[in-house]
């Protein structure tokens, strides 16, 4: 490797992107193309960066397996940052395996971090934790340790482990400062800000209030019976009853939970759950059937008893009942929650992350665009959607992952 390539690589490691382009900006040999591609990606020109990296990979050829694999890893990172979640993950896995076989543990660890971040975005937390378990961060350089801790914090936030997340972010901050890379420090700051954003709204007999993640964790660890409208479950400590696939039953549980300790009339339940303006006998008959199903599902946690006017939810052991809801509830809140990260998303990537059909997501985006809440640029398959983060709006921290088979 010649001196200019070596100097450019050192400049890239230090975050000096202009230094990289000064040294190799006019060269078209494979190492120079790869370095230019990575620098252009960090400057935000993803299309040009992708082209440069693909050209570099072809120029390296099959004899330069390690260099070619590094180009694939860099292209995978561009796909992740540009939210191209349809980019084939098997290609990244094959590149990581090549790097491991040739002893390039640093870039192999980076590839594994990219795999984890993709899994985290699409809500596959168990897979993300298993993949992350294959990395020992101790021997990694500061920048890679910071990236590792950011992933640890991201998983902890989605698992509602605020203390673990804050500790990981503190380690990420120290590693980023040691690396002296401004962009990395900014990423740590953004993650810390997300942790401090209201993650849920508590609805109880005493009123409503917004909660940061630490207080959400405290509520879930308390003795209260929690109707969790963020994940569509009813829980008390370690006993969790999922109603994610039973929207009518969850709507009944939430309505009764918000009314607790009082009851809720039959007509009010019909109007709220069945969206009927007037409750007739068929609605009341259906309500009796659904209440019976809810009573059976919640038997380990609470009873659903009939009153003179309607029905009431009564915890078995818990002395308090609360409802956890998203900070802001909107018809398309989940779409806005993903767009609020400030990145540009394709509709197909949003569909993959939400576990919804592309057509459903496109209809939501069109509706939000008419309302002026999101904007797009580009055309056809290159079209991307984005919005500025809204203060106090729901984050993705408590969004459930896609349902199996959804």
Q: Radius of gyration over alpha carbons?
A: 25 Å
CATH topology of the largest domain: Serine Threonine Protein Phosphatase 5, Tetratricopeptide repeat
Q: Report the β-strand fraction as a percent range.
A: 5-15%
Tell me, briefly, the overall form. elongated
Number of strands: 11
Count of DSSP helices? 18
CATH architecture of the largest domain: Alpha Horseshoe
> CATH homologous superfamily of the largest domain?
Tetratricopeptide repeat domain
Let me know the average pLDDT: 86
N-to-C order of helices and strands: HHHHHHHHHHHEEHEEEHEHHEEEHHHEE
Biggest pleated sheet:
6 strands, mixed
Query: From the helix content, strand content and strand pairing, which structural class follows?
Result: alpha+beta
Alpha carbon gap, first and last residue: 50 Å
Helix coverage percent: 55-70%
* Low-pLDDT ranges: 388-406
Number of domains: 3
Q: What topology, given as strand order, has the largest sheet?
A: 2-1-9-3-4-5
Overview of the structural elements:
This protein is α+β, with helices and mostly antiparallel strands. It has three domains: 3-196, Serine Threonine Protein Phosphatase 5, Tetratricopeptide repeat (Alpha Horseshoe), CATH 1.25.40; 220-325, Arc Repressor Mutant, subunit A (Orthogonal Bundle), CATH 1.10.10.10; 333-398, Winged helix-like DNA-binding domain superfamily/Winged helix DNA-binding domain (Arc Repressor Mutant, subunit A), CATH 1.10.10. Helix content is 56%, strand content 11%. It is built from 18 helices and eleven strands. The protein has helices spanning 3-13, 17-24, 30-42, 46-60, 65-81, 89-101, 105-121, 125-132, 142-158, 162-179, 182-196, 213-221, 247-259, 266-274, 281-297, 333-339, 347-354, 358-370, and strands at 200-204, 207-211, 225-228, 233-236, 239-242, 264-265, 302-306, 310-315, 321-325, 375-377, 384-386. A six-stranded mixed β-sheet has the order 2-1-9-3-4-5, sandwiched between helices. A three-stranded antiparallel β-sheet has the order 6-8-7. Strands 10-11 form a two-stranded antiparallel sheet. Strand 1 (200-204) and strand 2 (207-211) form a beta hairpin. Helix 1 (3-13) packs parallel to helix 3 (30-42) and helix 17 (347-354) crosses helix 18. 41% of the residues are buried.
């Amino acid at each position: 490797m010649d001196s200019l390539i070596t100097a450019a690589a050192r400049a890239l490691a230090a975050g000096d992107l202009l230094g990289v382009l000064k040294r190799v900006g006019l060269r078209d040999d494979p190492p120079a193309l790869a370095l230019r591609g990575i620098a252009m990606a960090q400057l935000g020109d993803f299309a040009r960066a992708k082209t440069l990296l693909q050209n570099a990979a072809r120029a390296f050829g099959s004899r330069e397996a390690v260099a070619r694999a590094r180009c694939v890893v860099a292209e995978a990172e561009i796909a992740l940052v540009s939210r191209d979640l349809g980019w084939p993950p098997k290609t990244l896995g094959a590149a990581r395996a090549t790097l491991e076989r040739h002893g390039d543990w640093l870039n192999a660890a980076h590839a594994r971090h990219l795999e984890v971040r993709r899994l985290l975005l699409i809500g596959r937390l168990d897979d993300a934790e298993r993949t992350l378990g294959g990395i020992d961060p101790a021997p990694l350089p500061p920048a890679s340790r910071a990236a590792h801790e950011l992933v640890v914090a991201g998983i902890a936030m989605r698992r509602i482990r605020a203390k673990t997340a804050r500790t990981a972010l503190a380690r990420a901050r120290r590693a980023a400062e040691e690396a002296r890379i401004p962009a990395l420090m900014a990423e740590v700051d953004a993650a810390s800000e997300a942790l401090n954003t209201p993650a849920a709204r508590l609805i109880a007999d005493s009123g409503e209030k917004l909660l940061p993640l630490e207080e959400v964790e405290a509520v879930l660890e308390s003795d209260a019976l929690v109707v969790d409208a963020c994940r569509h479950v009813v829980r008390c400590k370690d006993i969790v009853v999922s109603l994610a696939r039973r929207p009518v039953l969850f709507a009944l549980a939430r309505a009764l939970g918000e009314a607790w300790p009082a009851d809720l009339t039959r007509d009010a339940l019909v109007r709220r759950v069945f969206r009927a303006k007037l409750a007739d006998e068929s609605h009341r008959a259906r309500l009796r059937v659904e209440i019976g199903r809810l009573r059976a599902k919640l038997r380990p946690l609470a009873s659903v008893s009939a009153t003179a006017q309607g029905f009431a939810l009564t915890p078995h052991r818990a002395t308090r009942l609360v409802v956890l809801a998203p900070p802001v509830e909107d018809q398309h809140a989940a779409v806005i929650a993903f767009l609020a990260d400030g990145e540009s998303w394709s509709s197909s990537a949003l569909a993959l992350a939400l576990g919804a059909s592309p057509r459903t997501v496109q209809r939501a985006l069109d509706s939000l665009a008419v309302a002026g809440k999101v904007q797009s640029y580009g055309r056809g398959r290159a079209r991307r959607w984005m919005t500025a983060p809204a203060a106090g709006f729901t984050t993705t921290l408590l969004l459930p992952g896609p349902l199996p088979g959804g």
